[in-house]
Amino acid sequence: MPTIDGELKVVLVSKRFLVVDKPSGLLSVPGKGEQNQDCVARRAKVLVPQATGPFVVHRLDMETSGLMVLARDADAHRHLSRQFEARAVTKVYEAVLLGEVQGASGTISLPIRPDIDRRPYQIVDWENGREAVTRWRVLKREPAADGSPARTRVQFEPITGRTHQLRVHAAYPRAGGGSGKGGLGCPIVGDTLYGDGAASGPRLLLHAKLLGFIDPENRRPERCESVVPF
Questions:
Q1: Backbone angles phi, psi at 68, to 5 degrees
Q2: What is residue 73's predicted lDDT score, i.e. its pLDDT?
Q3: Mean pLDDT along residues 82-103
Q4: More confident residue, 176 or 131
Q5: Which pLDDT value is given to residue 159?
Q6: 61 in catalytic set
Q7: Alpha-carbon distance 186 to 217, whole Å?
Q8: Sign of torsion, CA 6 11 13 17?
Q9: How many angstroms separate the CA atoms of 17 and 150, rounded?
Q10: Which residue among 6, 27, 33, 168 is the one 20 to 30 A from 47 at the CA level?
Q11: Residue 166 CB contacts under 8 Å (≥ 6 apart), including other chains
Q12: How much is the pLDDT for 16?
């Protein structure tokens, strides 16, 4: 079992939803087997036992930390889910990548789908993959020194919400010849699926640091932020 890096923190509670800060190592929803029942959904239920929910609106990978919104009732769940489906939610992540990212900012568009023989691994498939679009911007560069490889701190804004989207877009090789069909060619530090995980970091250095959406009760915009823990 992975080490859970801290407790589930409550960032914001309202009549219709709650926003939590998920630690790395905690599942979003229950998994298979008795040992995989601890998750955000179950812990959140303890926090708001009087609610008919909470209902998970979106998920973060187990290894990813950061902000999640959960609905406290079925109608709020429908309202929030429609915002995610319509790409009307603001989602900003921060990550540390292994290697030196070329360029300062850009947009990645690489269609992805599950590899049916290696689940949960995702692959780029130009014919059968689902559209996956990510905006990115370099925040800081750490040159190689004293035998340590270069690292690049990057901000990601996923326009779509595919499984492992940011991890695939970060690790996928850069495009040759200026075709624009490549990723950043630098896996996220600690990524055991798409990079040299164990050798480069104690956890996946990916954090959902900002989440913006419309309150289903009063239709006012909400904006929550979380301090990046690495």
A1: -135, 145
A2: 94
A3: 96
A4: 131
A5: 96
A6: yes
A7: 41
A8: negative
A9: 41
A10: 33
A11: 93, 95, 134, 156, 158, 188, 206
A12: 93
Q: Pick the catalytic residue: 5, 21, 38, 61? A: 61
Enter the pTM of the model.
Answer: 0.92
3-state secondary structure 147-160: CECCEEEEEEEECC
Give the lowest-confidence range in 2-6, 21-25, 209-213. Answer: 2-6
- Structural domains in the chain, sorted by start: 9-88+212-225 (3.30.2350.10), 93-200 (3.30.2350.10)
Q: How many helices (H) and strands (E) does the chain have?
A: 4, 12
Residue 44 vs residues 1, 18, 57, 70, 161: alpha-carbon distances, Å: 21, 9, 13, 8, 22
Residue 178 clears pLDDT 70, i.e. is over it? no
Tracing tokens 């901000």 back to the chain, one arrives at 155
Burial (0-12, 13-18, 19+ Cβ within 10 Å), 171: buried
Using only the alpha carbons of the chain, give its radius of gyration.
18
Beta bridge partners of 51: none
Number of residues in the chain: 230
